[in-house]
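Why do we bother with a discrete structure alphabet at all? Because it lets us treat a fold like text: something you can write down, compare, and reason about line by line. To make this less abstract, here is a complete entry for BioF2-like acetyltransferase domain-containing protein. Read it the way you would read a sentence in a foreign language you are learning: slowly, and without expecting to understand everything at once.
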Amino acid sequence: MGTFTARFATAEERGNWDSLVTANPNGGNLLQSAAFAEVKSHHGWKPLFLVFESAGYTTYNLVLEKKVPLLGSLWYLIKGPDVAAPEDVPAVLDACKSFIRESKLAVFAVKIEPDIEDDDGVRTLFRRAGLVKAFNLQPNDHTAILDTTPEPNQLLRNLHSRGRNAVRRAEREGVTVQQMEPTDENFRTMYRLMAHIEDRSAARLRSFEYYRRFWTNFVSAGQGRLYFVHEDGEPSVGAFVINYGRKGTYKDGGSKPGRSQYGDSHLLQWRAINDLKAEHNIVEYDFCGTPPSDQLKDKSHQHHGLGLFKTSFTKTVTDFVGCYDQVLSPMKYRAWQKLGERITRQVYWRRTNQPFY
């Protein structure tokens, strides 16, 4: 474990933010991107661009800041810090704490969310560093990730037999997948399709304006694309996928129930994977959300159906550590835990009809 220092990014670094983030030890994450930072700036968060430096490497991380009445500011290192080893997390947070104090910033807690696989050793490491486990926020804290490095024929053979057979049958039966233009009409169609997902009703979706800005930003950055499958002349399956660095992600999806085309969703994903592999040389594809690995067979889990679909491509489910809090002001953090967070989230929802995070 080395020693780190922390600072805000320079104007030049912010101008090259995505190339710097994708050069991080783990290749960055789309939720650390400039496109996503701009989205969150319209939804109650102030994006900050933080740089951690050591003798061994430098890592660039997006911080989302939100001010909380009476308590100060909460910092959220979304999907960060991106470090070379779990042992570097405490050192990075020590640097973060020193920077906050030296800069006289009124931050009472820092929420972290590194893409580090969960195990007993990591939990012990974080506990000894004084980190407090918090509830997880992102859908892919448990997720299926496909290794996309094999050539296409071998990659198809590597899929779970359920996924491979679905792709082949859809191809035989003439199902077609189209990459769609990023128009307002297509985005509205995609949003309607998303309301049909089994574990997410329309009432739980963020606003259309949120998704439109998200999709538009990533398309404009050359990092996002929309696909549809049609049935009887109407869009029946949709997906928005992202390439960020050498990682692909199935970010948003939706479909109509009661479709007759077998394997249409599988073929759409297969098309997206191969497009991103051919055009951006992705090395992995994140299906973005499953039940935890030890609950895959639990039919009562709200993500059971999605888990079945996504593990038909890869059997392996990755469990990340999720969210932990670094406490900078114990008294304020206790108030936040006891009542502050719950009240703040409720007030924000009533005021905006959108999630706090």
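What the structure line is telling us, in plain words: The longest strand covers residues 58-68. DSSP finds twelve helices and 14 strands in the chain.
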